[in-house]
Amino acid sequence: MNTRKSVLDVRDANLSMAHMYAGYAAVFIGAIAGLLQGLVRGGLIELPAGIGYYQLLTAHGILLALVFTTYFIIGFFFSGMSKNMGSLYDGPRKAGWAGFYIMTAGVILTTIMVLLNEGTVLYTFYAPLQASPYFYIGLTLVVVGSWISGYAMFGQLYKWKKENRGKVSPLFSYLAVVTMLLWQIATLGVAATVLFQFIPWSFGWVEKIDVLLSRTLFWYFGHPLVYFWLLPAYVGWYVIIPKIIGGKIFSDSLARLAFILFLIFSMPVGFHHQLLEPGISPFWKYLQVVLTFMVIIPSLMTAFAMFATFETAGRMKGSTGLFGWFKKLPWSDVRFFAPMMGMLIFIPGGIGGIVNASHQINQMVHNTLFITGHFHLTVATTVVVSFFGFTYWLVPVLTGRKLTAKMNKLGIVQTLLWIVGMLIMSTAMHTVGLLGSPRRTAFTTYQDHPDAVMWMPYHVVMAIGGVILFIAAMLMIYNFIYLAFFAPRGVEEYPMGEVANEAEKTPMILENWKIWIGVSAALILIAYTVPLIGIIENSPPGSPPYRFW
After folding, report:
1. How much is the pLDDT for 548?
2. Beta strands in 82-206 (DSSP E)
3. CA 5, 7, 9, 14 torsion: positive or negative?
4. What's the pLDDT at 501?
5. 449 catalytic residue (yes or no)
6. Which residues have a Cβ under 8 Å from the Cβ of 473 and sit 6 or more positions away?
7. Fold classified for 10-537
8. Which of 85, 312, 360, 449 has a 20 to 30 A CA-CA distance from 489?
């Protein structure tokens, strides 16, 4: 008999926890792959048993950047919707389990292909690199499973709205639905290229593939993917952190508007990843660069809202002076400390993003390790450290256990190790990237590249940072296992924040999905219709999808 006590319906907690188990299993394997990859690049080891560098690079990227994040996000969202809407309805809960099983089947199939060296095509799987068709089928199952989980969340909100007509939807659930809606729209691009280009090509049904079209469809997906990672961290910052620090949510409507702006401006920006590629008109590249910079606005709105929350919470606790509130923040609480470190790291990470999106400056760093350093500051630090911080309270909530003082201290240590390791590794990446060291490669000798000797000291520093990161990852795995299975039984608070009394009333127009989906679709059509027609008209003969039929 299950006697577990929880603030959530146990059935919903089990659904969320299943996603946590799968996600942290991916962290374990992906961290090992990342460690070995870094040691090889630093010239410190040679891989045994025929294991390839690019095999490790593919496994590391897919398991950490795609698998862990997707599982965590979906599990986190299901738990929050269960908390602020009551138990999940039966239909959404069943759909959530269906999505989980389909995703897991896809992850297993994809991982097997990578481990068998049948899917060594890197995280971006650019053509003309070709994998086994089962690698692409596995990725398709992951996307389809995530779609079903998204539909479950849409269904949960729809049913809640029917039973609560005229009411503003709970903030957490609203932000979760916007994030999953962004994911549904973004993955249409990668689904199209995989289903109609890569799978027919990998099975040998067609001889050729349109490389430019495949890359364009991938980056239609690839950049909003970044916001799919980032927005759940923002959800925690907006809704969870205020409760943890003893404050209130600064503005419900500001949070909703920021997420709507992300939904609108995150899709029509993929060309800024293709600024140096031929076949795309400079005008359309320029347009999408402008739209890319529009995304800075909701990020600045979020920074304003968070620091306003911190200051008001400090004032409530009696702080005085310009920065007195800073001392009132609970720095010794890992539930706050880890996400706060993620917020602070996002400052240099965001500056690097502005460099990457700028047409002229991008040409200095394009396809160098500078890009990888930026990626590790944003996704691998801001997002991942926030997710780790959420884990310290979320897993006890889901398993009916307590976050102990000892585990809190270990969490602080784990966070500091991750931050130190990442700063060492990422600083070296940014620096050697400015010296021209390319990404996605492992040049270790002069024979590999004339500048390899100059780059090697930085690669060694990167490897040192990678070792520290691996230790932090293994400590996180230990902490996760302890919280899930060995922490004392008890009821942990689900820290769902409340909106400040002084906040303005949320306008109902923000709940009008037809408007915002329509605006988003219009911008996508404006940004992509003419360029895609040009790419298709100038495609090589025999390349799918349009020649396949």
Report:
1. 38
2. none
3. negative
4. 80
5. no
6. 27, 28, 31, 418
7. Cytochrome C Oxidase; Chain A (1.20.210)
8. 85
The catalytic position among 256, 335, 374, 459 is 374
Residue 374 appears among annotated catalytic residues: yes
What was the pLDDT predicted at 389? Answer: 97
Could you tell me which of 249, 240, 247 has the C-alpha nearest to residue 393? 240
Distance of CA 522 to the CA centre of its chain: 25
- Does the annotation count 60 as an active-site position? no
Catalytic residue, from 215, 223, 335, 459: name it: 223
Q: Is 172 helix (H, G, I), strand (E, B) or coil?
A: helix
Mean pLDDT of 276-281: 87
How is residue 245 written in tokens?
A: 């620090």
Q: Which of 198, 227, 370, 392 is catalytic?
A: 227
Q: Cβ neighbours of residue 452 under 8 Å, at least 6 residues apart? A: 443, 444, 445, 446
How far, in Å, are 31, 146, 294, 330 from residue 335 at the CA level?
23, 27, 31, 9
Q: What angle do CA 191, 192, 197 make, to 5 degrees?
A: 110
Q: For residue 382, is it left (φ>0), alpha (ψ between -120 and 50) or beta?
A: alpha
Q: What is the mean pLDDT of residues 271-298?
A: 89
The question of whether 439 is a catalytic residue gets the answer yes
Average pLDDT over residues 159-178: 94
Give me the count of residues in the chain.
549
Cβ(350)–Cβ(299) below 8 Å = yes
125, 135, 250, 375: the active-site residue: 375
Q: pLDDT band at residue 44, thresholds of 50, 70 and 90?
A: confident
Sign of CA dihedral 356, 370, 114, 130: positive
| Catalytic residue flag (residue 223) | yes
Among the listed residues 366, 440, 449, 547, the single catalytic one is 440
CA angle (258 as vertex; 170, 188 as ends), nearest 5: 90
DSSP H or E run through 418? helix 405-434
Which tokens hold the place of 510?
């923000």
Residue with tokens 């090509």: 201
Give the chain's mean pLDDT: 92
For this structure, is 272 an active site residue? no
d(CA 192, CA 197): 8
**Domain map (residue ranges) of the chain:** 10-537
Three-class SS state of 181: helix
Torsion of CA 363, 367, 368, 374, to 10 degrees: 90
Active site residue 376: yes
Evaluate the omega torsion of the peptide bond into residue 128 and state whether it is cis, within 30 degrees of 0.
yes
pTM of the model: 0.95
Task: Please compute the mean of the pLDDT values over residues 487-507 and round it to a whole number.
Answer: 90
Type of residue at 511: E
User: pLDDT of 84-96, one tens digit each?
Assistant: 998 999 999 999 9
Q: Report the 3 state secondary structure along 10-71.
A: HHHHHHHHHHHHHHHHHHHHHHHHHHHHHHHHCCCCCCCCCCCHHHHHHHHHHHHHHHHHHH
- Beta carbons of 202 and 133 less than 8 angstroms apart: yes
pLDDT at 74: 98
The answer to whether 211 and 155 have CB atoms below 8 angstroms apart is: no
- The C-alpha torsion from 58 through 62 and 65 to 69, rounded to 10°, is -160
